[in-house]
Write a structure and sequence with these properties.
The chain has about 100 residues and is mainly α. It contains 6 helices and no strands.
Length: about 100
């Protein structure tokens, strides 16, 4: 497979993951994703922002979130996010520290 085709397939898989998280399973909470998988929608939006910045495209955290969420993050939260119980919040603190809080590699 040539490199361009591989890039196009990776982009298609990313778009499908985005659709799954944003439309098909908007009911799944970010905190649950982070606690189970070590990443969430916010991580994906941050990775998008970091990729843009690495290519010389200035993008803020809020702009990255809006690009991934398809709307301002506050609007997403108001429409989809529910309050997490203390047990989930404690698990999140651990998952965040292990997966986001420390610099990788």
């Amino acid at each position: 497979m040539d490199q361009q085709t591989e890039i196009e397939l990776q982009a298609a898989a990313f778009r499908r993951l985005q659709q799954h998280l944003m439309q098909d399973r908007a009911d799944v909470q970010n905190i649950d994703l982070m606690n189970l998988a070590g990443f969430c929608r916010n991580c994906l939006s941050r990775w998008y922002q970091e990729a843009a910045n690495a290519r010389g495209i200035e993008m803020t955290k809020d702009e990255g979130r809006a690009a991934f969420y398809g709307m301002p993050y506050d609007q997403w939260k108001a429409q989809n996010q529910t309050e997490a119980d203390p047990e989930k919040q404690a698990a999140f603190e651990t998952a965040f520290a292990e997966n986001v809080g420390k610099k990788k590699g």
